[in-house]
Amino acid sequence: MSERQKLSPSDWWATSIIEMKPGMIRYRGYAIEDLIGRVGFAEMVYLLTRGELPSKPAAKLLEAAMVAAVDHGPQAPSIAIARMAMTCGVGINNAMASATNVLGDVHGGAGEQCVELFNAVAARLPEGARDAATVDAEMITKAVTEEIEALAARGIKHVPGFGHRFHHLDPRAPRILALVDAAAAEGAVSGLFAAIGRTVEDVIAARRGGKRVPMNIDGATGVVFAELGFPPPLCRGLFVLSRSVGCLAHAWEESQSDYRNKGPIPRDQIWTYTGPGPRKVPE
């Protein structure tokens, strides 16, 4: 019999996240009644995913990143799907689930990919160069250039976290970076990944003949997540948590309308047919 088969029922779902029995609930050792009213939602996210309560500056950065990505309008597939689902007669939880299920590599995954990029650049830096004060711009530029060339060698032309199809300058990114800079000045974060992110933008511009491709929301939140040390796969989950707020709001708003079976295009319009012309079924 394997060790897994020998597990007792109480060890089958062993977890370090929550301890619970009648009259008692503790998260990572903290009693829920002590947490309620004393910590915010972002702090609880950090506690449950990382095991410890964050510092106040770290909590502020995480909350800022999650606030920034809550919604981007019905043109975003996740939001559109939430609204369409509600007109099909499903519950609000079904609409939210349908919406978050499309947050994949293309729509919703760039933050995770961006943190992977930033971490890969940091790994190319000299040993011990792990904060903005111990690494110069030339080192970062060299590491960024090498990593972007490595991406290109793998056929990856679009650098995740940079450029936006709607915003020439994503209004969310400068504000987030300013908060990271303030936290770095206080010593709360290293500032290294903010420097890496800005250097990626510079290197892309140099490779495009001076045409800049500004950092977008995924790049800016990627800076925050990397500064806070979140593993890349968790970063997609953080984005899903954030975007769920927009999915909830849009699903609820759509539920107040009188539309039924609302599709992706208005009913007075029809899609473009690209198949064969009219033809007869063979005898």
Automatic annotation (TrEMBL):
Enzyme Commission code: 2.3.3.16
Family, per entry: Belongs to the citrate synthase family.
Keyword Acetylation: no
Superkingdom assignment: Bacteria
A GO CC term attached to the entry: cytosol
Enzyme class name: transferase
This protein's UniProt keywords: Lyase, Transferase
Pfam family, one: Citrate_synt
Protein name per UniProt: citrate synthase (unknown stereospecificity)
GO molecular function: citrate synthase activity; lyase activity
InterPro entries: Citrate_synth-like_lrg_a-sub (IPR016142), Citrate_synth-like_sm_a-sub (IPR016143), Citrate_synthase (IPR002020), Citrate_synthase_sf (IPR036969)
NCBIfam families xref list: PRK06224.1-1
UniProt pathway: Carbohydrate metabolism; tricarboxylic acid cycle; isocitrate from oxaloacetate: step 1/2
SUPFAM superfamilies: Citrate synthase
Organism annotation: Rhodoplanes elegans
One GO-annotated biological process of the protein: carbohydrate metabolic process
Coiled-coil intervals: none
